[in-house]
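Hello,

I think I submitted the nickel (II) ion job twice by accident. Can you confirm which output corresponds to this input? Input:
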Amino acid sequence: MKKLLCLLAVLALLAQPLRAEAAPQRYLALTFDDGPDPEQTPRVLDTLRAHGVRATFFLIGEQIAGHEDTVRRMADEGHQIGLHTWHHVSLKGMTPDQITSQLDQTRAAIRETVGPVDLMLRPPYGFVDDTLRQWAKAPIICWSLDTEDWKDPTPSRITADILRQVKDGDIILMHDIFDTSVTAALAAVDQLLAQGYRLVTVEELFAQ
Ligand code: NI
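Support: Only one job matched these inputs. Its output is below.
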């Protein structure tokens, strides 16, 4: 019994400096696919700005024309922009020429709008093959937490799923084209910040 008490005392002493230290910072990357959307993307940007947090937007090339102001705003407000193909097509099974056409057109549209930037690729549907790995000429970024916001669009369900599953280092997949997804994302931002997460871009997450 004495030995046990002694051991407990030692453990208590050892635990003290740990308790005094702040919990390690936890990071998350929110990512929004399929924009820019004239209504929903500005809603997301407004909330991110109000909270002083950053996210990553994977854009469909053909949707940029007419929404350049929204894309410029992403860059100006410190968000990361990435590629999501020109026509929102699966790149799996494509030839190198087809891949290059989908990505280079999108790269050109983004760079004409915001200037020279490095662009990561989010492949539509997460579909990847060896030809794509070889010809993407960009880091390929999928996700670690899928909200399936397109499948069941109930905002409270999406927010609850994020909060239940989230862990340090997650890359969360959402879409800034659905009113319901954006409502859910905005509710989640409040709660994630309250839980002490820092919301950063994918690039910043990797740097951590
Ligand atoms: Ni998509």
